[in-house]
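worker-3 :: picked Glycosyltransferase 2-like domain-containing protein
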Amino acid sequence: MKISLLVPCYNEEKSLEQCIRSCLNQTRKFDQMIFVDDASNDQTPHILAKYYRQIKAVRTPHNTGNKSSAQEFGLAYITGDIFVTGGYPFL
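worker-3 :: tokens ->
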């Protein structure tokens, strides 16, 4: 069974790397990890880009203003049989 992870984020430069590393270090590895950047205006996009080999980062065209809209945007990229979602604080 393929498990996907969906994490929306907005201006999370202070905690994003810790979150990504935690996701990568889970005992049961995720088959797919999608991070949805909700049009951040800090270093969030640059941090996500550092992990391009391990995660898929997608960006909303403009800030949606809430977590649920960012999650809904990210659903189009999910390929797993089941998915889990998280936000901050996460893992």
